[in-house]
Design goal:
The complex is a heterodimer of chains A (335) and B (443).
Chain A lengths: L2 H27 L7 H32 L6 H17 L4 H24 L7 H23 L14 E4 L8 E4 H23 L1 H11 L1 H6 L4 H27 L9 H11 L4 H21 L1 H4 L4 H15 L14
Antiparallel strand pairs in A: 1-2
Chain B lengths: L2 H11 L3 E5 L10 E8 L6 H22 L6 E8 L4 H11 L15 H14 L3 E2 L17 E2 L5 H15 L8 E7 L2 H4 L2 H11 L2 E7 L7 H11 L3 E5 L3 H12 L7 E3 L6 H4 L10 E4 L8 H9 L16 H24 L6 H9 L2 E2 L1 H6 L9 E2 L12 E5 L4 E3 L8 H19 L11
Parallel strand pairs in B: 2-3, 4-5, 6-7, 6-8, 8-9, 9-10
Antiparallel strand pairs in B: 1-3, 10-13, 11-12, 13-14
Helix pairs in contact in B: 2-11, 2-12, 3-4, 5-7, 12-13
Chain lengths: 335, 443
Amino acid sequence: MNTRVLTWLVAVPAVVIGLGLLFQLLSLVEPSLYFTWAYYLEVLIGGTLQGVMYSLVALGFVLIFKASSVFNFAQGSMVLFAALTMVGMIEWGLHWTLAFLITAGVMVVLALVIERVVLRPLVNQPHIILFMATIGIFYFLDGLGQTLWGSDVKQLDIGIPRTPIFILESVFEGGILVNQFDIVAAAIGGILVLVLAIFFQKTRIGRALRAVADDHQAALSVGIPLKTIWAIVWSVAGFVALVTGVIWGSKLGVQFTLALIALKALPVLILGGLTSIPGAIVGGLIIGAGEQVAEVFLSTFIGSAIQDWFAYVLAMLFLLVRPQGLFGEKIIERV
Amino acid sequence: MTFRQLLAVPAAATLLTVPLFDSPALAQEGSQQYFPGLQYRSGPYAPSGIPFANGYADYLAMLNARDGGINGVTIHYEECDTAYNNDRGVECYERLKDAGPSEPAIWSPLSTGITYALIPRVTQDEAPMLSMGYGRADASDGRVFPWIFTAPITYWAGADAMIQYIQQEEGGSLEGKKIALVYHDSAYGREPIATLERLAEEEGYELSLFPVAPPGLEQKATWLQVARQLRPDWTLMWGWGVMNSTAVQEAAAVGYPMDRFIGIWWSGTEPDVRPSGDAGVGYKSLNFHATGTDFPAIQDILSHLYDEGEGYGEREGVGEVNYNRGVLNAALAVEAVRTAQAEFGERPLTGKEVRWGMENLHISAERWEELGLGEFAGAVDLSCEDHEGGGSAYVQSWNGTAWEPASDWIQPRNDELRPAYETSAAQYAEEQGIELRDCSQEL
């Protein structure tokens, strides 16, 4: 077995148990800190499932950065636009599956338009210019979505069950509460990642994309069409945005603030690295679980409502050890 | 979406000030009363801001269409989009204040943050401002805040009404009960804490606080703590925007009983519960006005505006919580102008004259009836000292498609709240070097 995988298999349970023991000890010192192993696992599982949803958001950023070294500021508004479009079609009377397929098509068309109108004229420009262009795309999509579909909060119901269930009732008294929605959302996220992994590892287009990601000029020199690859990557990122929008929209309702969930991806990207799909997944899980555990078990000592900034602190702590992120590429430049 | 709305969104987003209506027949200056509108039709809180703005604008437009304005003085209404942003709120105020045919009648910024930012400006400009159900609770003391009005009710009074309701449901005693407060971690969300802590000492319940970092998209840990660790008898919420719908869904996700979960009036609108579908059924919130369209004044809006294709929003939105709140805000402002006109003459008024109208505003149940809004809101009774007027509230419950009343009107205990307002206002006056106004010298 790969040494790296083995390390993770040993380290993760060790950290989980170690933290649990630490909180148990702290609860003896500070009685206001509530701790039971069942409750600890409940928070940990809930956070990890939440982390899968963060990973989905981060994935959209990673795909585009890998292919074009552009940090796509518009990923959040793509999520919102996709969700708004799908809900709009459902409101027209279409079944959600049909609305999903049509919206996927809309996102592909959108990707082609972005490549043709925004990216192609900016080929060979510095990365900061492309980044600024994505800020423009963010505001454009944000306004366009609301203009076409309105600003109301819309319900998106695709039949995912929402009732809480209890697991491990024979092990822990009262069991551990898990919400079915989180499990289904995590499963959808997992399937998407699997499909993307196969697409990038096993298909010709996937290999071409990885070549472009490694070196634009070298890829061009062997005949890989950069513009086509960009269009494909933005289309895939659009599809990821759609899946993200459907899951987050089902959870929170489809509304303007969906665009803000992109912010949740930033600590994930810092932690996992901007160029690694496994990094986005593992980073999301660590941030999701870490921020929930911190909010519940550290708030006694450092105050509540800490999870947003704690995610960044956690990411920074990892960076002290691995500046390139957990799975980021180590850049060695010889001068 | 209508073509008019299609145009409205980008126009609002570019911070244009939009004169929405006035009567061409009476367009000459001198015959129009200017109503500025600090609204938000764009930004993350637009789902709440748009229906409020529509209700406000529609009520004024209906008066122009039905009555030719207020006692023959037509209304000139101009709007600026603040996007619920404090900086833009101040910018809009500066843009609008000299943009009308008369002095502005009264300002209503629909934002606690913008209210705080505008207090020094309206005070300097001698322009009245109504923060209806938001803003500083201690601004109810008109001796310290002569230009700010909090009618019909404040957050502190709302907290008191919630505890009274829980007391009724628990059979009178709260001794040993556990109550949690989940709140937006901002000045707005922290407003009720002092009142709830004071009542906890008096009533013997245990209060636990759960701040949520804005905007409130992530609350899983909060609700695990509330529902799995603390397991309170009741949970109160001071939320706003996406925090509300997220809270309702996360509470349902951990199996917290909805009928023991009560939000403040800004956590009790349709966009707060619709995304949760059936999971939100039974959720409660406070409200200080009625919902629905079964009121003559609102029927007049439908017949004079929407039947003619002149309504500012969608017909289906008329009667929803935020829409009716906009109507109430406009109705209070108009009644203040009407009151002042009786004193100063039926002509466009200055801000100072409208303030007089506010300080002499007495709307009884009979007067609400005459206004076509019978049983729409509680009685309002303002004075130079009392800028709140001792309004009341009731609890409403979501049935899956609409809000329905779940209690009678609850009168907050103003004999206890009033000293708290005065103490807090006196502290503010001392910090700011404000000399208390002598109300006996006023007209």
